[in-house]
Design a protein that fits this description.
Helix content: over 70%
Order of helices and strands: HH
Shape: elongated
Strand content: under 5%
Largest sheet: none
Number of domains: 1
Distance between the termini: 9 Å
Amino acid sequence: MPKLDKVKEFIGFLKAIFITAIVIMSSLIAYLYNKSIEDNYVVLLAIILDLLLILFLFKKIIKEINLLEDL
C-alpha cells in the first residue's frame, strides 16, 4: 500500500509542475502578443522549451498512471 500512495503523490507533484508550465507558456504567449516582434527570439525559445517540458511531463504522467494499473 505505501508504494501506491507514493506513486499517487508523485503524480500529484507532476500535475502541479504541469499546470505551472502551462501557466508560464500562456504568459509568455501573452507577452509576445503585446510586445513588438523585434528581438523576441528569446521569448520564442522559452516558449519552445516550455512546450517540450509540457510534452515530457505529459508522457511521464501517463507512464506513472499506467504504473498504477500494475499495483
